[in-house]
Amino acid sequence: MTEPAPxxxxxxVLADDHPMYRYGVAAVLADExxxxxxGQAASGSELLELVASAGPDVVVTDMxxxxxxxxxxxxxxxxxxxxxxxLVLTMHDDDESVYGALxxxxxxxxxxxxxxxxxxxxxxxxxxxxxxxxxxVARRIVGTFLETSxxxxxxxxxxxxxxxxQVLDLLAxxxxxxxxxxxxxxxxxxxxxxxxxxxxxxxxxxxxxxIVRAREAGLGR
Length: 221
Hints:
By secondary structure, this protein is α/β, with parallel strands linked by helices. Helices cover 55% and strands 13% of the residues. It folds into two domains: 10-134, Rossmann fold, CATH 3.40.50.2300; 153-216, Winged helix-like DNA-binding domain superfamily/Winged helix DNA-binding domain (Arc Repressor Mutant, subunit A).
């Protein structure tokens, strides 16, 4: 079902196989003067047809639907319209759902427990070209990124000893030799010896070059 909308409003289509939930979202959007709900679908295949006919600015889709899930629908939509903002609105915040949607190209991911203000602000953010994720999803994404970065940093420079890696990490964080010595409980002479070994093993000319290499590998955080 397609409905007309004034040209200055953000045109939204919604897909969810639960009629009462669609009714609730429609009620929220009806109270928002900047947004117009121009169509609703009960399945993934219906959504694909609806988008083709309604030309929305933002697509809001559930993750679990009878024929196609939100990941498959998002991928299919973006194959045809790569710039179309898709917001996944779902009860599911497991890794498979979240990262599957992101890999498919979704620009937003929001849990159904979000309030009406957050839903509207997310839709408007996507329409303006941004991305938006609910707090719990954002924390999951950031946590995964930090974990990956830490693992990468720990795996960098296997030629260094643990102590040399500690010295390099502090060096990349901007510490002077005296501060490194104090933090690691060693003399400045020992720090200089470690630095000499680090420069040799990394095959760089000076501490500035070592800092660049270390920061590229995720050290110095």
